[in-house]
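Suppose you are handed a protein chain with no further information: no name, no annotation, nothing but its sequence. What can you learn? This example shows the usual starting point.
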Amino acid sequence: MGLKLAIPAETWPGEARVAATPDTVKVWTAAGHEVQVQSGAGLGAALPDAAYSAVGATVVKDAKATIKDADIVLKVRGPSADEIKALKPGAIVIATLDPHRERATLDALAAQKATAFAMEFVPRITRAQVMDVLSSQANLAGYRAVIETASAYGKAFPMMMTAAGTVAPAKVFIMGVGVAGLQAIATARRLGAVVSATDVRPATKEQVESLGAKFLAVEDEEFKNAQTAGGYAKEMSAEYKAKQAALTASHIAKQDIVITTALIPGRQAPILVTKEMVASMKPGSVLIDLAAPQGGNVEGCVADEVVDVNGVRIIGFSNIVASIAADASALYAKNLKAFVELLLNKDGQLAPDMEDEILKAALVTRDGAVVHPNLSK
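A reasonable first move is to predict its three-dimensional structure. Written in structure tokens, the prediction is:
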């Protein structure tokens, strides 16, 4: 007998993504599973109810009816209190749960005896790459940050030579060279900007330069040894931090656009751009802060607002990927599809091996308790 999977509509303000697309639903219905999709769940991603019905899903009027008998509930963001109450005991919930900041949601899931997996906790190992939602969404966030900046910036990105004169290219500085930062570099370069980037990890220098951008760092002996064997950044000395801050400050003053991407899971985002640095920039310059949901990398950033500081705009997106919901949903849905496969045996029955390293890492609630070791009160 097949499983029942539920895809309720998202309830977070401004969330346009959906946790399953007709492509992923088609795989499950073809395997004999029952899929219920709440009416309107895919509209923000340009996926009408008819697209789900066409691949065998049942479109259900409201969230409670969608969820109540489900074995597995798939969400983009954590479920609401009402959705949690609708879960049957033992139901599996898979979503980006923001576990460090949304403890009340975890406690409610535990009280309902739900088994919940946080997709943010999927380990970054080779076998789990296809489930890596942080990377799939950050890739689009980096791209979209540049597009949004190009729209907000009052000048052209590429150099343009005309009979009336030459338009200088925009100078773009990317702070943080993870997945989002690398895509931002590539996108800004494609648009013709002069791009520079910085990161505390020495290994990123080669990646930055391979994309045609300039790497900015105080490259002394301490910097060259600033990475652990596991690829993580080491804590730098106060002396090094002061030298790097001075270099960054002088560089930012010459930039038209700054995009910041530095996030630390479970912690406040580090301040990379001080109010003095913002004040040094030319009127018309734009900063986009992708760390806005965790306090921001730019001093003065406010999530989901545009702050004007003497003509310099600071844009704080808390969910930039929702503005590119169709592609973001397609990638996220494939991440979830791969994760669901881990829960099933070769006969398609629900038989999760909780000792599997991926499931073990992502598991946050089970048997009435919050069980993840990093989430103990």
